[in-house]
Design a protein that fits this description.
Protein name: DUF3265 domain-containing protein
Number of strands: 0
Number of helices: 1
Largest sheet: none
Keywords: Membrane, Transmembrane, Transmembrane helix
Amino acid sequence: MAVNSRTINQPTKLTNCLRVIRNAWHFYYALVLAFKVVCVSIGIALLTP
């Protein structure tokens, strides 16, 4: 029985896609968090005399 190489690579391709999506979400949340920290620190700096 011959094994098709496409069937072997399919789960690996799906795993790599999910890994990229997960990394993109982590990057997005880290970017949002960094933006919030910068905005809050600017706000505190403007409020202090």
